[in-house]
Task: structure prediction
Amino acid sequence: MARATSHGAAPAATTNTNHRRRHGSSLSPSPAGGTSRKNSTEEATGLLSPGAGADAEDDEDDSHPGEPDSRTPTAVVAHGRARPPKSSLPSAFMNMANSIIGAGIIGQPYAFRQAGLLSGTLLLVVLTFVVDWTICLIVINSKLSGASSFQGTVERCFGRTGLVAISVAQWAFAFGGMVAFGVIVGDSVPSVLRAVWPGLGEGGWAWGVDRRVVIGVFTVGVSYPLALYRDIAKLAKASTFALASMGVIVVTVVVQGMMVPMEQRGSLRDWRLLVVNDGIFQAIGVISFAFVCHHNSLLIYGSLEKPTIDRFSKVTHISTGVSMVACMLMALSGFLTFGDKTQGNVLNNFPADNTMVNIARLCFGLNMLTTLPLEAFVCREVKVNYYFPGEPFNMNLHLLFSTSLVFSAMVLSLITCDVGTVFDLIGGTSAAAMAYILPPLCYIKLTTRSWKTYMAWAVVAFGCTVMAMSMLQAVGKMIRGEGDVKQCY
Result:
């Protein structure tokens, strides 16, 4: 993810001129150094429609958002070395779907409990469409602005303030995910080891199921080597495994949910659990956390063998559609089984000695180990492109950033079981900013008024509401003394 330069308006104008020559668009530099778009924006925005395939295939040139080219400051990074490996459509789907179907899917039954069955179902469907649209907007905005990254697009539109906002949002969300994944590994794998080897936690071998040992060994042995890759395309096989493991988890909840004895099931007698409950904004936060992959979108777009908006839109539609089906299955199976007893991690509702559920717990923990490197990619790119824009690739810097990110996230995972309201606040604000606020705001800035801009304003208003409510809820928990950070030793 390469950041556009902020060295004055001249580079932006040059980039936009080249972009205009290749695509025949009517982009022109604005007085503020940004860009304005005439009615021909349909050339780009129309590519979201099914009939736009032909135009989209013509939209390809030597450079694409998400990868360095000869006209962007990050060209130096790619100059003099072989072109990075590319992803096929299935591989790109694996990377995007894995980025979506991660830790958040396990909380979907809890989201339905908070929102109510009817409201939860509607929210999941509507938010899927909104997220799908804003993911595609990131690539469209990148082409309209002439920038090669999400960061660069926001900077072109809103200057240094926009750059700081998107950099903080991307980094905080991705790094928070890395820490959360480590915590999940520590919560999942030790219980599986105890179930497989009942005597392992006794005597001189007790350290073998110690939470800190498990997190350290698995993070260093699995996540760290994957995070050292320079090209996201190389994570396709890991993403395939991760998706397969999430399939096991969904099937486990569906199958084992039907076998839960009545005394362990929850109640659905309260009408609010069936229609609209009072935790609807919490549900929006949980669902949004599960679906936000905007910080990976241009990396995935740039990894395509033939990067066009049409092909990327196809990957996005399939990925979000499959993710919605998986989340819906998980949510309905878990919530209809456990009702008002549904926990944030639905696997915790099942007995500790359930063999199939323990396999699912193991898969969930391993899935987090392969998802963590995707977030490390984002954190590393944000830091490199913010602090060292235009610098040639430096292996020492690459190793330093990769190592510091993985090990700092691991340390936080080691000392904390529940980051509580701190991560609630960071997750709510950064996810809302990346998914519902910044992409449509950039689109509004880059286009003329149309029905699509009104839709964009509606999404911005929704995102601001979600952000405000998340902050109010976090502050309320702090005042009431809820959600205190719990230490694990």
User: Anything to note?
Assistant: The beta strands are 28-29, 35-36, 416-418, 486-487. The chain has a mean pLDDT of 76. The chain is about 70% helix and 0% strand.
